[in-house]
Design goal:
210 residues; alpha+beta; Nonspecific Lipid-transfer Protein, Chain A; 4-stranded mixed beta sheet; 7 helices; MDMPI_metal-binding
Amino acid sequence: MTYARAERAALSDLFARLGPDAPTLCEGWTTFDLAAHLVLRERRLDAAPGIALSPLAGYTAKVQESLKAKHGFDGLVELIRSGPGGFYGLVPGLDEAVNALEFFIHHEDVRRAQRVWEPRELPAELEDAFWKRLRMARGLFLRKSPVAVVLHRIGGGVAIGGAEDAPRVEVTGPASELLLFCFGRQAQARVDLSGDEAAVARLMDASLGA
C-alpha cells in the first residue's frame, strides 16, 4: 500500500469514528466540510480552482455544499476511502506524488483538533519525502512570512525561506512537523523556535502555506 492510500484509509477510519460534527484545524470547517472538500478536489475539477483562487471561491463553496447534500457524510467518506478519484486514479504515480502530503496534512487537521492527541511516528521514507517536498517548495510555503525562516530538520538538513533582510527565526523539528508548520499549522506543530521574541510572534501569526 502506498503512503497516500495509507493516509487516505486512516483518515476515512477517523472520519467514521468521529462523525460529521467533529472540529478540524481548517477554520470554520467540521469533519463533514473537510470530507466534502476532499471529494471536491478529486472529483469536481470544475470547482477545484476555487480552492486556491479567491474570485472562484464562491462557486467552489456552492459545489462543496451540494456534495454534502447529495452524498451525506457517510457517502463522502466512502468516496474518499474508495479513491483516488478523478485523474488522480488515472495518471500513474500522481496519487502518491500529490496525495501523500495532502492526506497527511488533513489527517492531522482532524487528529490535532481533538482534545487529546500526540504526534505519530512516521516511516523514515515518508519523512524523507516530506523533507524533499519542503525544500523544493519552501519559497511557496513561506512566501507570506514576515521574517526570515531557517528550517532545521532533526537528523540533518537545513532550508531557508521567508523574507530577506528581516529578523531570523530558527525552526527545528522532524520533517513532518516542519511541513505542518509551513502549511499554516504553526500552533499545532511540535517544533522548537528560537529568535527575537517579536519575530517569533510575527511568524506564529503569519498566514503560511500554499
